[in-house]
Task: structure prediction
Amino acid sequence: MSGREPAPRAVPEIGRWRGSVYCAAVGTQALVALAVVVALGTPVGLGLAGPARGSAAAGAWVVAGLALLGLGLPCVAIVLARLGWNGAAALLERSPGQPFEVRLRELRTLTRPLAYAVVMVTIGGVVALVVLLLVIAAVVALLSPWLTAGGDEVVIGPVTLSTTPQSVLAAVCAVGLLTGLVSASSRLARVHCAVVLQLLTSPEQRLQSDLTATVRSRARLVRAFDVERRRIERDLHDGVQPQLMSISMTLGLALAMMPPDAPGRSDVMRAQHQAKDTLEALRRFVRNIHPQVLIDHGLGAAVGELADTLPISIRIEDRLGDRLPAEVETNLYFCVAELLTNVVKHSGATHAVVRLGRPGPRAVEVVVEDDGHGGAGIGRNDNSGLDGIADRVAALDGTLSIDSPLGGPTVVAITVTAPEGTVHD
Amino acid sequence: MRVVLAEDNTLLREGLQLLLERSGFSVVAAVDTAERLLEVGRVMEPDLVVTDVRMPPTFRSEGLAAAVTLREENPGLPVVVLSQYVEQSYVAELLDSADGAAVGYLLKDRVSDVADFADTLRRVHAGGTAVDPAVITQMIKRRRDPLERLTPREREVLAVMAEGHSNAAIARRLVISEAAVVKHIGNVMMKLDLPPNDDQNRRVAAVLTFLRGRSPEQ
Result:
């Protein structure tokens, strides 16, 4: 999966040092948030545990504290959630997309930030405190050899260091501890990112982003098909066709040098005919893969040439004017080719019209109309070509409409957007 | 006859060169890009240019464009374009230069009929027009409606005539008498609303102008 696409479930590997910096930042956030929450909650503590100044005063403290918490917590939650989201997005190198959104009129939208804040202040706060204490202890232990050398005693929690061997041992342990913390940090960062994505994105958002990714990937696939078609066409045109032609030419030269009654002349002639027939078949095949005229002369000319090869009468009304972007031309060409093939194969029509036009400055419309017996639609086995067209049109973000009553006529219209007055690249 | 040849595929270029030289032409330059074609076309003063359509660097219709440019600079320079495909848009582009006199558009396959190919080159050099029969067939198909008035035989005559053949050659090809050819051509001209004209090239040009002038993409 490419890193550009938002896909909230999978959290990729994170580098050790980036993880450490990230954990330090998130830990600081958690500690600050914890401090703010504790400060806001202090009046509650005072009211509950303060010296007996009368129950009314205690009650007033508690009410004031709860009010402060009630107002302050959402603010803390929103700030914390936003920081957490941006941090995770930066770490995972994702486009931040649209994260949670808080609307004051809809209290429901506060739920996710609040849940995130609660997790961060409780579990996150505890983890951050423990890690902070461990880091402080490790730094002190690292400095202890100098302190004990000066005759001081170093106290780290329950441990007291007074001799140089003790302090050197402690410093070694501290180095091990710090190394362990740094290497654990990438895992911790992943856990945090997972928590952020889980708590701050709703299932709808995840579906939405999955859908966006799918639409983009479909467009990429269609584009890749066309690139591949062009490559195959070029390979055949530049490789196989000249070789066959060269054989045919050599046979022609041989024939020109042969007296009319030379033995084997008829065999050479037959070989030349075979080479010609093969070339003819190959030419038809190549042109179906990707017509050169589409690149040189555009959609109208390419559709015109295509119509000439079909057995029914087809009128082209080309009112496109300027050339369209290459991708649009290619997609529309194959849509028209598929539609005309359907008309010939299934509709029983004797006449068809292809109208190419620009109903608006940014719109391109292709209409294929036939006088057949109708009944065409998407998702039916006999017209599976229409599904392919629907896919192409969807990849171009266009619309496809099929009007095909039983008895006909069938009108298929495709509308896509394209910039005005574009030049074919 | 001094010929300049442009074809990017080495195999085909060498084959064509051999073929032309064996048929009595003198290939003064054989180049592989449209740019080089323009250069040698200006410097070498060839009697005839034979070029591929699709050439480097972009592999679109560079060869055709270079040939048209040379004809603009040097009106009447005979040009034969060889193509892998029957594409009327290219033919139209070519015929629009100097009214289609002394131009040819042939499918590459025709090259293997050595004598026929050499004959076509000479006809174009002499100021004739030579359009590949496959292209004519397609043009006729496209101009179906007015051409429906023609009998099958008249359509055949029209197709061969558009290739630039003389009445005698048409008669030989279709195995009919020359008098019959003259009669058929008279009918074709009348049915297609083309004024009779003795000059053969103008006759072909007139037919082709008619054929492409009302094709849908114009």
Chain B has eleven helices and six strands.
